[in-house]
Design a protein that fits this description.
It is a single chain. Helices cover about 25% and strands about 25% of the residues. With about 450 residues, it is of the alpha/beta class. The chain folds into three domains: about 5-40; about 70-275, Rossmann fold (3-Layer(aba) Sandwich), CATH 3.40.50.300; about 280-454, Ribosomal Protein S5, domain 2. A nine-stranded mixed sheet has the order 8-7-9-10-6-11-12-13-14, with helices on both faces. Strands 15-16-18-17 form a four-stranded mixed sheet. The protein is globular. The relative contact order is 0.09.
Length: about 450
């Protein structure tokens, strides 16, 4: 029987469908994103075969079983996943081109071969010869790791049925296509259908599935937004090609926290775990230089010591520049306004640049004090004591407010040789004494500048 065909114009950003072409998508309000696609439907009577209906049961009668997790033998990856790879889970990994997504995935699959069961790596972008060349560079030589260069979804499922792997990776989901749809690979319909079939196959067999996703110029995973809602975990691989450090961050995780990060260093032999990122991030820190401060930012359950650099320079522009890298731009503008109004620093005609060294992105307010002090240090041309760590949130009235987890922040700083810590007075009153680190309580930015520069 001939298949029924139906044409639709589908937005490649949000998946909105329209029977006719539109210049602007009504769903996401993006321009020129609607593409005509031919949807092929099988007119078989009765449609899809339905599974038996689920039986409702009271929630107090549901037996809770601890999910079994598989170790990838990469501690940083297992931490971000919540303790390991959950059986039947679907993990989506996104990141800029060349950031190391395929490298991380190949090393993780090599770690899963310790189960001594077949592990399947399917690539739609590389040939098996190219994968072999990369595996030699990474030292991946396990006989339990199987590779296949395939893009057709039906062939992927057939390979999975024959091999019966313990884990599957598809690199990337944008290259996969099904013959049931006539649209091009990477289109909304293809990506959604292929991801849905792979997800149901993995959950039915209890096999974890890894999907690699391309990202747009805005940094979001390309394709329909529903793709991120379908999977269990969404990981973003962040970093600058000019830096050796890579950060793996979870934005969604049904089996763990989204606050954990994994830190890696890119080397010729692949990605190497960084067990103590604070030490490496501070390795090249200049001493006795104005505009440089150190703070302890919380990333999940562990503190990371980060150097914050600021540069205040006279500006010839009518509207001086306020540029930040790794720090929220709005937060920078707020702190500059507080320094002008409450401290009395004349920053109105100054270009101000702030950078979190090492490509780290800081989102918590507990680093406000370090940012404000770095700006003041650069403007006054007075260096901050290199053995001092600054912790605290700055309010709009110039007060230094209390932050959380100060005990482990101070402990981490003392381990790396810092001998003095400026932190909110309310935190000092509740903290136990640390013998190797002097804790100085401050209530306002004026107190901080008096302690450091007077």
């Amino acid at each position: 029987m001939a298949r029924a065909e139906k044409n639709r114009h589908i937005c490649q950003q949000c998946g909105f469908q329209s029977p006719k072409w539109l210049g602007r998508c009504p769903g996401c309000e993006q321009w020129n994103t609607l593409v005509e696609e031919t949807l092929v439907r099988d007119p078989t009577p009765g449609g899809k075969e339905l599974l038996p209906p689920a039986t409702p049961q009271p929630i107090d009668g549901v037996i809770l079983e601890e999910s079994r997790r598989l170790s990838s033998n990469i501690v940083e990856l297992d931490r971000v996943l919540g303790g390991g790879v959950v059986l039947g889970s679907v993990v989506l990994i996104g990141g800029d081109p060349g950031i190391g997504k395929s490298t991380l995935l190949l090393q993780a699959l090599n770690g899963l071969t310790s189960l001594e069961q077949p592990i399947l790596y399917i690539s739609g972008e590389e040939s098996t010869l190219q994968i072999k060349m990369r595996s030699q560079r990474l030292g991946v030589t396990s006989s339990h790791l199987y590779v296949a260069a395939e893009s057709a979804l039906e062939n992927m499922l057939r390979i999975m049925d024959e091999l019966k792997p313990a884990a599957v990776a598809v690199d990337s989901i944008q290259t996969a296509y099904t013959t049931q749809l006539e649209s091009a690979p990477g289109s909304v319909a293809q990506v959604r259908h292929c991801a849905d079939r792979l997800m149901h196959e993995g959950k039915r067999k209890g096999v974890p599935v890894f999907l690699v996703g391309h990202v747009t110029k805005d940094g979001a995973i390309a394709g329909p937004r529903v793709l991120e809602h379908m999977v269990d975990t969404v990981l973003y691989f962040e970093g600058d090609r000019g830096h050796a450090f890579r950060i793996l961050r979870a934005t969604k995780n049904r089996y763990g926290s989204t606050n954990e990060i994994g830190v890696f260093e890119m080397k010729d032999s692949g990605l190497q775990e960084v067990s103590n990122p604070s030490e490496l991030l501070l390795a090249e820190r200049p001493m006795d230089t104005p505009g440089s401060t150190v703070t302890a930012a919380m990333e999940g359950t562990r503190p990371i010591l980060v150097e914050v650099q600021a540069l205040a320079s006279p500006s010839s522009l009518a509207a001086p520049r306020r540029t930040s890298m790794g720090i929220d731009h709005n937060r920078l503008a707020l702190l500059v306004a507080v320094l002008e109004k409450k401290v009395g620093l004349s920053l109105l005609h100054q270009d101000i640049f702030v950078n979190a060294v090492g490509g780290v992105r800081i989102h918590e307010p507990g680093v406000d004090l370090a940012i404000a002090t770095a700006i003041a240090s650069s403007f006054m041309d007075k260096p901050v004591d290199p053995q001092t760590v600054l912790l605290g949130e700055v309010g709009l009235t110039g007060e230094v407010r209390a932050i959380g987890r100060t005990d482990i922040r101070v402990t981490e700083a003392s381990k790396l040789g810092f001998r003095r810590c400026l932190l909110p007075q309310s935190n000092v009153e509740r903290l136990p004494t640390v013998q190797s680190c002097e804790m100085i309580g401050v209530k306002s930015l004026q107190d901080v500048l008096s302690v450091l520069f007077d």
